[in-house]
Amino acid sequence: MKKLIAVFLAVALIVTAGCTASFLEDKNDGVIAVSFYPIYIFTANLVDGIDGLRVTCMAEQSTGCLHDYSLTARDAKLLNDADVFVINGAGLESFLSDIAEAAEELTVIDSSEGIELICSHHHGEEDEEKEHHSHSHENNAHIWLSVENAKKQVLNIRNGLLEIYPQYESRINDNYTGYIERLDALSKELEKAYENVSGEKIITFHAAYEYMAVESGLEIIECIESDEGGEPSAKELAHLCDVIPENDVNALFVEPYYTGSAANILAEQTGAKIYVLNPVTEGEDTLTAYESIMKENIQTILKAVS
User: Fold this and answer.
1) Which residues pair with 252 in a beta bridge?
2) Running DSSP on this structure, what letter comes out for residue 63?
3) What is d(CA 123, CA 236) in angstroms, rounded to the nearest whole number?
4) Half-sphere exposure of 195 (CA within 13 A, CB side)
5) What is the predicted pLDDT for the residue at 119?
6) Which DSSP state fits 231?
7) Global pTM value
8) How far apart are alpha carbons 268 and 176 in whole angstroms?
9) Torsion angle of alpha carbons 162, 166, 171, 173, nearest 10°?
């Protein structure tokens, strides 16, 4: 694995000349590499207060989800120096498939193990040309947006870390217990709030929110996300302009970094309002960030469907 990444690093450094990587400051540290923001928060909670372990996030927060992410020289350096690489799994980090398969020295912890995946159904521009408006189907990797799934991810990460760092077993377990207690409290708080939104119909502009919808009882009647990540066609927009009033849809949910025009068009044509939900792919570097974002999201949902 180290040789494979070293080769990739050499090539990447040529392509991205001038890039630097200063994240390995203490060679005595145990380096835990994680793929992106929510996995960083989960892992940081588990190793909080352990001086010998350091968590480093591969993708910058501005990256969002990792669907189209490409490895950089910095990433190769990080993986080459890390003891373990913690990933979301469920197919999200598809860019690592070749490297992961060849891994011999670097342990990969897949936090999605044992979690039941949702098969996404979303419209795309090409779908409109197919008979009966057929939909594209794929497993939804945004498992962390269900608190119950998040707790399973934290458990998987803990189990993996204990195998690699048995000397920190007591502290990791203590951190795990405390974090799960907080996530349990979050789950109860959200469950109570969800009673007020169950059965409401919404439209989203990203498949990220399907697990949240299942947990809250919301019904996503349309997920507007084309196969190529582009905007819906004029035909699809016309279809949605009919669907929205027919189903008494009042809310259109987009991501913080949504830059399309379709949501604004639909809002102008139907009177539905646009609301922003954070899919927990960006936020503060704090141990309570996941809880804070999920609480903010439910407040947004309550406002949208009330």
Assistant:
1) 203, 274
2) G
3) 8
4) 6
5) 86
6) P
7) 0.85
8) 47
9) 40
Structure tokens at 298: 């439910």
The domain locations on the chain are: 2-117+143-184, 194-305
Nearest Cα to 296, choosing from 140, 279, 41, 286?
279
pLDDT tier at 138, thresholds 50, 70, 90: confident
Decide: helix, strand or coil at residue 266: helix
Percent of the chain with pLDDT over 90: 64
The kind and range of the H/E element at 163 are helix 147-164
CATH H superfamily, domain 2-117+143-184: Nitrogenase molybdenum iron protein domain (3.40.50.1980)
Tokens of 268: 């102008």
Separation of alpha carbons 254 and 39, rounded Å: 22
The answer to whether the beta carbons of residues 202 and 272 sit under 8 Å apart is: no
Q: Which helix (H) or strand (E) covers residue 212, if one does? A: helix 210-216
Token pair 């949902």: residue? 301
Report yes or no: 37 and 257 within 8 Å, Cβ to Cβ.
Answer: no
The CATH fold of domain 194-305 = Rossmann fold (3.40.50)
CA distance 216 to 194: 5
Strands 136-140, 118-122: pairing kind:
antiparallel
Structure tokens at 285: 């570097």
